[in-house]
Amino acid sequence: MGFGFIKKKGEDMGRKSISSLLKINKYEDPQMALDLVAHICTSAADLSAEDTYEPFLKTLDALCLNERFGHCYDKLHSIKSELIEGSLDDNDRFDLLIGKSIDEIVNLCKKIREDAIAAQEESNAQSSMKIAVCGGYSSGKSSFLNSITGIGEVLPTGIEPVSMVNTYINTSDKINDLCVRGKNIKGDWVSLDKEVLDCIQHSSRSKVHVASVLDNLYVFVPVSKEKGYLKNMTFIDTPGYNNSDNSNAENKSSDKDTALKAVSNADVVFWCIDIEAGTISQKDIEILNSIEGNKSVLIIFNKMDKKSTEEVSKILKRSRTICESKLKVQPLDIVAYSRDTPNVVFSGRGNESLSSFLSDLNECVGLSDDKDYFVNRIEKVFQEKETECEALLKKCYEIRESLIRDKDKASRNKREALSGSKDDLDNLKDILLGDYDRQLDCIQHLCSFVNEALEGWSKSLDREEEWSDKVGFFKDASSIGNRYQKACELYNQFLELWNDEEIPDYWKNEYRKELFENIKQKYEAAKEDIAGGALIQDTKDVNIAIKSLNEYKKFLVDAQNKTISSFEQCYDEASKLIKKRLDCMRGIRNDQDTDIFSAIANDNMPRFLNCFSSGVDLTKYNSQGYSPLTYTAKCGNNAMMKFFISHSVDLSLKDNRGYNALETAASCHYQDICELLMEADRGLVAKSRPLAEVAKNNNFESWISKF
Question: What are the residue ranges of helices labelled H in 420-529?
Fold first, then answer.
């Protein structure tokens, strides 16, 4: 190939890179970005821990099988009206106790189990206290987080909008290295590298929107003993709410919606404002007032180093006045911060230690670790039932006292009523057994007298009849005889009736005695049941209910201990299982071979790009004396050379042989490489030795001539 047509250009036409160290994000390459998207979409890490909670479910099922409180439920139901009349407002209160109360406990505990599984599947993805770092576009949120967590420049910052995906920065003293994980839009976990964060910010370079397949990002940051106050905190980096009201191409959500979604999951809100704004804006006020729930808010003015201490104090004071008049919920504090002094915050009281400030915040929020949180929820379920049981017990005691009072009152009233009945009973005895007998005795005597009279009359008539026959007078004797005969017939009829077995019972003495005894027994029974059977039975029912409720209360305490113990064991087992699975998660392979020369020689573009993640020194040489740039020219790799050119490297850099990239390409007769280089830097020819001479000095021709 001839290069005689090439003329030297002026030195002033060249472009020169300031640094010889080239560090770029490998995902700027479209193919690498597409590979990343494929990795995220196809990842399906199994973090389910449901099986480990089977013993817990069995413990809950055992509660439902407990039937010893059925009789208590029945007794409570029998006196339900009494209790309701006693001012219990909820007619279904009894359904919530004993029988259905246990079912409700089980259902609530099962819901807690589901929440625990969901939380554990994130496996430290969110720590105890979750802090959403929010604010307007370019308010310094990511810079603030990079500074206080000490992770350097992991979170991308700059003039381009960032944080299109909610990013959770989790601090922990249980890990040694920073790692990144993500959750794809299917809810599956995937292991990533930290370059993904910058890739999302600069998706315009690769034209591949990685954020479109990611739901959340999680950065796990190790904390040293010196920064122990950060332990178990989760900081949520959110997009600027005022960046745009339009939906992002990446996730189809506006930045405002993405930010507010993160706030809803947080315990505390750090609201960042660029101190150059001078005060809190009306837009900030509107967004803060729209936050649902009783969230604790800390307002932070970033970049305080841009203002004097006096100016900072005025800004804080002015903002506090506005907040007092316009904010629905007052912030915990209003402070200023600078990354130049990362361990200090400035408030109206002066400088404060960031460590003590965050420690106080942690104590103020009063959060515990996840397991304690769920255990406390279980305790609350049982305690609410115990409280209901106590309330019903108290009501039962009151009703029992009321029944006793009613019984005593009824007893007094009946005693008073029966006290006058004793004389009536004595009178009844005299009538039934005394007067009636005397009357019957009189009748018997009368019968005897009538009988004697009739007999005397009969004898008298006989004598009169004899005398009449003798003397011949007493003509009415036959008429008197007829009347006598009639009287005898009537008397005989009466005697037949008197001696008949079918005479009325009340004529019989035994019957009247038995009747009186029955009346007397009922009277005595009335004296014994003087309070009334219904009151006595109600009192017995209440006593049974009280006994059963006390048994139920004891059961609740025992069931609570067993349930919590079972839950804690299952929770610990689930944590171990999830950690093991997370450690085994398939991640993007970080090629251990970062030898740039090997990647160039093997035409391995992915490995070539991966080398630049940590930075490549363009003045580094291989054993043959080539630099990465001249070795690319020597190998004739157009794609790799275009990569160097697109990143504005100094194309005139010479290697250990004294050759630059253009000279190397000319010596190897790579016209296309030469054209790429000269197109990129018109002054490069002037900075190179004569290319025609270089082209003649062909190593291959020298080598082949030996044969």
Answer: 421-429, 436-471, 477-499, 509-528
Same domain, 316 and 447: no
Structure tokens at 333: 């504090």
If you search the block for the tokens 């999680």, which residue do you land on?
218
pTM of the predicted model as reported, rounded to 2 decimal places = 0.56
- What's the alpha-carbon Rg for the chain, to the nearest Å? 54
Which residues of the chain register pLDDT less than 50? 1-18, 70, 80-97, 158-163, 243, 248-252, 367-368, 531, 586-592, 704, 707
The Cα 519–Cα 527 span in angstroms is 13
Per 3-state DSSP, the chain is made up of helix, strand and coil in percentages (nearest 5) of 60, 10, 30
For Cα atoms 54, 55, 56, give the angle at the middle one, nearest 5 degrees: 90
Which residue range is the domain that position 664 belongs to? 11-23+615-702
> Who contacts 98 (Cβ-Cβ below 8 Å, separation ≥6)?
69, 70, 72, 73, 76, 548, 549, 552
Encoded tokens for 275: 């101190």
- Pair (249, 339) in one structural domain: yes
The total number of structural domains that make up the chain? 3
Burial 120-154 (b: 16+ CB within 10 A, else e): bbbbbbbbbbbbbbbbbbbbbbbbbbbbbbbbeeb
Are 574 and 117 a contacting pair, CB within 8 Å?
yes
CA–CA separation, 451 vs 217, rounded Å? Answer: 130
